[in-house]
UniProtKB/TrEMBL annotation:
Keywords: Electron transport, Iron, Iron-sulfur, Metal-binding, Transport
Name recorded for this polypeptide: Ferredoxin
Coiled coil: none
Matches recorded under Pfam families: Fer4_15
Superkingdom, natural source: Bacteria
Occurrences of domain 4Fe-4S ferredoxin-type (ranges): 1-29
Annotated function: Ferredoxins are iron-sulfur proteins that transfer electrons in a wide variety of metabolic reactions.
Family annotation (PROSITE patterns): 4FE4S_FER_2
A molecular function GO annotation: iron-sulfur cluster binding
InterPro entries: 3Fe4S_ferredoxin, 4Fe4S_Fe-S-bd, Fe-S_cluster_ET
UniProt KW Electron transport keyword: yes
């Protein structure tokens, strides 16, 4: 399972790295980016919470 951020949709609110910093971080352009790593089982819930909480639905966890 990995996280993905649609940078065209992202508004750079910073919510996803605050909910799941192991997977999401803010990029130099002020928008979120997902680290290119497999999501460990123990933080899948946090990654899913970030996906569900994104105000513009820019995050996909699959």
């Amino acid at each position: 399972m990995k996280g993905f951020v649609d940078k065209d949709t992202c508004i750079g609110c910073g919510l996803c790295p605050s909910l799941c910093p192991e997977i999401f971080e803010m990029d130099d352009d002020g928008k979120a980016v997902a680290k290119n790593v497999e999501i460990p089982e123990d933080i899948v819930d946090s990654a899913k919470e970030a996906e569900e909480s994104c105000p513009v639905e820019a995050i996909t966890v699959e």
